[in-house]
Amino acid sequence: MKTNKSLLKRLKITKTGKILGRKPGFNHFNARQTRTKQLAGKKMKEFVMTNKAKRRFLPGLLKK
After folding, report:
1. Which of 56, 63, 60 is nearest to 17 (CA)?
2. What stretches of the chain show up as alpha helix (H) in DSSP?
3. What is the C-alpha separation between 1 and 3, in angstroms, rounded?
4. Domain ranges in the chain?
5. What is the C-alpha separation between 6 and 22, in angstroms, rounded?
6. Residue 29: is its pLDDT beyond 70?
7. Angstrom distance (rounded) from CA 35 to CA 44
8. Range 20-43 average pLDDT
9. pLDDT above 90 (res 19)
């Protein structure tokens, strides 16, 4: 199976195997938010995936 490259570009896989992705909801209309909330949207959040989805989209990367 091949790795889904479009999904891989949006995620970061840490050394310990965690999958991180962007927090949702920060594409536009950020000017009305407080600065703290704006900066919180830049942080990566743990991306929850089932084992079945990991096998389907990210084979070969999660061998640990």
Report:
1. 63
2. 5-10, 35-40, 51-57
3. 7
4. 5-57
5. 14
6. yes
7. 17
8. 91
9. yes
Q: Tokens for 46, please give them.
A: 């743990």
Phi, psi (deg, nearest 5) at residue 46: -65, 130
b/e sequence 34-55, b meaning 16+ C-beta within 10 Å = eeeeeeeeeeeeeeebeeeeee
Closest CA to 64 of 28, 13, 29: 13
Going by pLDDT thresholds of 50, 70 and 90, the confidence category of residue 39 is very high
Query: Phi, psi (5° rounding) for residue 10?
Result: -95, -5
Task: Report the run of H or E that residue 48 belongs to, with start and end.
Answer: none
For the record, the structure tokens of 33 come out as 């938010």
As given in the structure block, the two tokens for residue 30 are 């950020």
